[in-house]
Amino acid sequence: MGIIVHQALHGYSEGHRQFACSAELTPNDARLVLVMSDASGSGVTAEGISYLTGYPLPESGLYALARTWPAPEMPRPGCVWTHTLFIEFADLATLDSPSQLASLFKAPSIDTARVYGGALHFTNALASGWALTSSQVPVFARLATALYEQPHDQVWARRATDAQVDDVVLRLWDLQWPRLRRSFRFCTLTTRDRSQEGALFDLQFCGESVSRLRFSRSTEGVEATSISAGPWLAQLVDYARRPDASEFREVLRLLGTDVLGGREAMRAICELQATLARRGPTAVADAIALVTVPATLSGSKAAKEMVATRALSRADVLNDSELHYVVDNLDLVAEGELVAHGWKLAGHLLEVAPGTLVELVEDERPAVQAAMRATVKELDAALLVDNMMPGTSWWPPLLSIRPDLAEMSEFWRRTQARASDVQQAGVELHAGSQLAAAVQGLHNEVSIESIVRAFGPDAVLTCIQQLMSEGGDAKELRKWIAEACRQPDAVAAFLAQAPTLNPRLVACIAAELAPDVVPNDYGVDPWLVALTAVKQQAGQLPIELLVYGFQRAMSWRSRSVGPLLCLTFESLHGAATAGALASSNWQHLRDSLPWVRTADAWDVALRLRLGLVKRCVDTPVAPEDYVALASTDGLFSMILDATWEHWGGKRYLKWVEEVMVESADPRQRSRSRAVRAYVEKHSKWWK
Predict the structure, then answer these.
(1) 684 band by pLDDT with thresholds 50, 70 and 90
(2) pLDDT at residue 496 in the model
(3) Cα angle vertex 256, ends 253, 258, to 5°?
(4) How far, in Å, CA of 605 to CA of 610, rounded?
(5) Is residue 480 packed enough to be buried (19+ CB in 10 Å), middle (13-18) or exposed (0-12)?
(6) pLDDT confidence of 387, banded at 50, 70, 90?
(7) 17 lies in a domain?
(8) What's the CA dihedral at 94, 99, 101, 107 to 10 degrees?
(9) In angstroms, rounded to a whole number, what is the distance separating the alpha carbons of residues 345 and 237?
(10) 17 and 8 Cβ atoms separated by less than 8 Å
(11) Around Cβ 355, how many Cβ atoms within 10 Å?
């Protein structure tokens, strides 16, 4: 893509005047061009070389780049030819390397003076620029040092006759942002300061034959003699030596349009680039200092964005003040960078300032909030929960973003959260995985109560049973079992309806509830269902459950007295007969048994039989259950003896015999005959 470049030619013809011009200039600008196109000072033409002059024409919106040649063919000594190129400010800003305009210069003569009246078409063919040679680098470094370390002073330097000064100055001009480029004033050969009223020249050269550049004003200017050791200059020289330094041009365009001022910003921009390229531990802090008041770049949004982006990429190792800067400027960071590095910031904040992370996911800046919420969604769940602590109020917003955390036992263990806290965070409590995690993680009694209330005791008991089947420690689950047992109706439903029952869980429930607590208002006793299931799984009931089941049968609650006695009595009696009934078990049984004579108090087996008979007769227990109380004839005979001695026992035995004689079960009919024989033997009045 090309641009239009206007031109003009000035030379001597009965005085210095304009020969041709294709540009429309204001009168003031035309006069300035006339002055600048004349010899730059006495003795300049004696050097025998051409030189460049660059300066803006503000009224016309043009930048003038001129090359001046000595004109020895003219009759008057000291005459010059000057070919001036005019480029619009807007076009100048688009050029990657405006120094390429110098290729348009053509040395004029009397014969060609009239061909400069038309505009030129320029194509930015060398878009990537050109590199300094090794001999030009020291010159470039001296000029850059003076220009940018003393930005408010006029700079001058001595020019050797064979030095390639023009190329160096043009490279300096290339490496400027558009606003600085169009205001930069320079002349590569003069013997006096060429500044005009209100328009000082930034850079000027004098020949070797001149002791120093003469300044008409009070200033003496600054001679470019030294080279800075600062990293900013090394950075600028590096870009000047690389034709493909497109990244620096982009930075200059970006920051140059965002920074007020002129040459003073170059050093700051280069220093920022050098700092951002560093990997040391102080790099981020140093970069932040460069964009913080009162630094030159403190008003640049683009510079702050660069620093924030760089700091974000190292957010996992930043200190508190550096993190604070990143957080305050997150809205400046591009979405792609937030996505790429947001996890580092979130992870570090979780460790050092979790409350700040919560503030970000609720930030008033929409872009920041959206990005950080997206980041939290992608964070490793273990990282999130590992930094949660009890008593902190910052985790609910994170849970609202990551409801899956409620399925982790570590979440509950660290937060000891209540159900209401979790629900207020927008998480519904209904999944079995959530309950299992809570059961394994919570130990706070208030929190446990809230979860049991939210899920229901039957669901909690089902969950506990599953955990026990997987090897869960019953001791650690006792608080949950105790809380679930606060609702006996729910326990009854669980015992009666659970497809399988874990013996350890049944034993724990029995340890929590007295035998007469669980209701049995209708149907089969839940405890009969539970104990039968345990016996089927284990082959036999442990002594503690035998005692509990017998007590249940002796209580007023059960509607399944007979089956419970059948389930527990014989094994319990055998343990008592063998002396295997521990004192603790006996303490539970004793209050359920009737009074006996002191002489018989030692006989636990006898007391069991007497208690059994009293319950059978008083209830009364169904005949089919009575005849099934003992599997051996010997024990059944002892039960008959105890029944015969009990008040009302004779009548009860006759009823049993009458009912059982009609039974279809051969064993029951056999027991019926045994009852008949017993009664006939012990009671003649029955005949």
Answers:
(1) low
(2) 93
(3) 110
(4) 9
(5) buried
(6) confident
(7) yes
(8) 170
(9) 35
(10) no
(11) 11
DSSP string for 468-508 = HHTT--HHHHHHHHHHHTT-HHHHHHHHHH-SS--HHHHHH
Decide if pLDDT at 287 tops 60: yes
Asked if residue 646 is part of any domain, the answer here is: no
In the structure encoding, which two tokens stand for residue 467, read together? 């955990």
> How many angstroms separate the CA atoms of 534 and 442, rounded?
28
Backbone angles phi, psi at 546, to 5 degrees: -60, -45
pLDDT per residue as tens digits for the range 16-38: 999 999 999 999 999 999 999 99
Determine the pLDDT at residue 599: 64
Q: Cα 156 to chain center, whole Å?
A: 55
- What is the model's pLDDT at position 664? 81
Rounded Cα–Cα distance for residues 316 and 405 (Å): 23
Residue 207 in any domain: the answer is no
Percent of the chain as helix, strand, coil, to the nearest 5: 55, 10, 35
Q: How many helices (H) and strands (E) does the chain have?
A: 33, 10
What pLDDT digit, counting tens, does each position of 209-229 carry? 777 888 776 678 899 999 999
C-alpha to C-alpha distance for 403 and 187, rounded to whole angstroms:
70
**Tokens matching residue 196:** 């005009």
Q: Quick check: is 230 in a domain? A: no
Q: What secondary structure letter does DSSP report for 204?
A: E
Q: Which two tokens stand for residue 472?
A: 């869960």
Q: What is the pLDDT of residues 493-544, one digit of tens each?
A: 999 998 889 999 999 999 999 999 999 998 999 999 999 999 998 889 999 9
Residue 385 vs residues 394, 400, 412, 680: alpha-carbon distances, Å = 12, 13, 9, 78
* Cis before 620 (ω within 30): yes
Token pair belonging to 288: 């932040």
**CA–CA gap between residue 246 and residue 253 (Å, rounded):** 11
Give yes or no for a contact between 300 and 258, defined as CB atoms under 8 angstroms apart. yes
- Burial code (b: 16+ CB inside 10 Å, e: under 16) for 554-580 equals bbebbebbbbbbbbbbbbbbebbeeee
The Cα 444–Cα 411 span in angstroms is 13
Query: Total structural domains in the chain?
Result: 1
For residue 634, how many other CB atoms are within 10 A of its CB? 7
Q: Which domain holds residue 37?
A: 1-127
